[in-house]
Amino acid sequence: MLYERLDERRREVARRLQEVLHSETVGTPQALTERDAAAAMYTDRLAALRAAEHGLAFGRLDALPLADGTPGEVRYVGRLGLLDEENEYEPLLMDWRAPAAQPFYTATAANPEGMRRRRHLRTRGRNVVAVDDEVLDLTDAAAAGSGSGLTSEAALMSAVSEARTGRMGDIVATIQAEQDRIIRSKPSGVLVVQGGPGTGKTAVALHRAAYLLYTHRDRLARRGVLVVGPNPTFLRYIGQVLPSLGETSVVLATPAELYPGLHARRTEDVRTAEVKGRTDMAAVIAAAVRDRQQLPRRPIELVVEQQPARIDRDLANQARSRARRSRKPHNEAKRIFRREALQLLAQQVARTLGGRNLLGRLDVEDIREELAEDAAVNRELDALWPTLTPERLLTELFADRRRLNSIARRIPAEDRALLERRAPGPDVPADLRWTPADVPLLDEAAELLGDDGSAARAAEQAAIRAEIEYAEGVLDVLDLEEELDPELLRATDVVDADRLAERMQVRTYESTADRAAADREWTYGHVIVDEAQELSAMAWRLVMRRVPSRSMTVVGDVAQTGDIAGASAWSDVLSPFVQNRWRLEQLTVNYRTPAEIADVADDVLAAIDPGLTPPGSVRSTGVPPRALAVAPGSLNGADGVLADIVAEDRAAVGEGRTAVLVPSARVAAIRSGVLGEAAGEDPEDLEAPVVVLPVGASKGLEFDAVVLVEPAEVLAESPRGLNDLYVALTRATQRLTVVHAADLPAPLKRLTRP
Q1: 31: which of 25, 162, 216, 503 fits an S-S bond (Cβ 3.0–4.6 Å)?
Q2: Are 740 and 710 in contact (CB under 8 A)?
Q3: Mean per-residue pLDDT for 137-145?
Q4: 58 vs 70: CA distance, rounded Å
């Protein structure tokens, strides 16, 4: 019945969407905007209805009987809400985010919340394949206090044990009580969700985004939600979760993509990235901007309309001081500098012509206009206070050792040397000119430079010129008919090129997410930062500019920090922005990692920090992780030994996914040796049966089987090698194999050797 109602709703919404798209509207901006808004609304609604196909209804709550013995209410819980429009809009299916659905996730035998029974429905397509019941109205105190503390345990174990697909699935049917509390917590302020591997941090964050969009849609629909993830592979992995929950108005981006129009892909040494991530760089960039607001070393002599004019240090300093006092960004303050300099020059010329008393205000204004139109004057003023882009500022700073040493004196000399680099050639694509660590610096520079509007005006004028030229060509074609009767109206008699170009303009009304992603100054209603421990101090400044309301969900685990510019404690990164006004929630249950593997990983965690408490695993597979020693030449995969090991684990997990996690220096060789032609065009395609990844790219991901190659090299290649090793060991849901030629690191002493 519910699926029949879903089909009806789909057909109705699709019909209304077609009516809107094919409606004949008056071509006014208001009418076009209204039509586009209606189309966007129906498109989003249709997407949500289509997303509900899988697991439309997954739960049922039976309330306790009433005092008079009347049976309690029965509520069905699902992906969205459906109402019986023919029966006074009685609810047929409750959205999982509705308050009335919360007992499905939080009720226990000790605290049934008015519920008698919780039923979990497992479906495949539109068929029910399993029913799991939990009786909640236990009267026996011992029985009420027993159990694992997990809600819908059978369904949960089934979900975490099934084969992975290479894409993260939602957990809407198996959310646990500690997760539900976080998902439904208030949106205001900064919430930090700390949890070890497998505790569902990412799933909680994404479901929190869906919940907030449901409960605060009016506000968040206008400003949008930003989800920041560590790398593109991770974003592809989680990309289907929110659409499966019917939410599409969310921007997903890596820190390297938060500067619109740029996806920084250039690589650099980790030490250089660490220097760029320090807060000292904010002061360096501010000093670099001020350094470009120059005074002439010697007076600049000019002749304007046969009259001498002189730009000396005193004149330029007066204009510069006035512009700086405005506290406007550099490019916007340039207008003040230019206006003041021209006014002082005009007064200077007026005195030369006979004194200010002999010339009236209008005469001085005429002189000022002549100066403003003089090419030499404009050239010299532009040299003293140039219009700058963030790209130009940083390129010229890093390429000029003298300027860099002068501006960045607070940074040690050996670290300043790491910042030096030659300017790339004009044929180098923008993405390869900049590294991910440069993106926060570009954003900082953009904040200080501002926009004088010239680029936007130039682009607009160029677009208009192109439209007019195209329209002129259209009119020329229409009037080329040689035998056209001269008495008949021609196209040019009815409309000129300007008017035709105006009519041909395509007005686009983008979604909130599209507009937000393209606008550097956009501020979001809520921001979620996943694997947040990896962000540098400068990256945090960038993220905080995107959410001045400080409505944030920060998700991570400081024990997994791999970047040397990353966090060691949440207070260190958050205190500069919110002091102590943030709250911490802990996830304590490891749903992903079997106990056999978790025991090995816990030893590594103890080596990182003996004071850290590992999350408790809820399941066991009976398959202990193993260590296989091989000859050194076998680690490149060329002799087939490593490929055989991978094939064995792949066969053991059937349709699941296997990851080979390797030190960064070995990625290319092992991909070639293990995958060969199967590597395909996308070597990080997580939907492939086997994928070879550097350890750093596996953060936040999960696989049925993991083959970890040469852990000693993983330790050696990073200043936080233990953290990287901990990450690698905790990606597997079924099997873990460690392949090594060198001696195993001491923390891996529990590994069994065949």
Answers
A1: 25
A2: yes
A3: 53
A4: 25
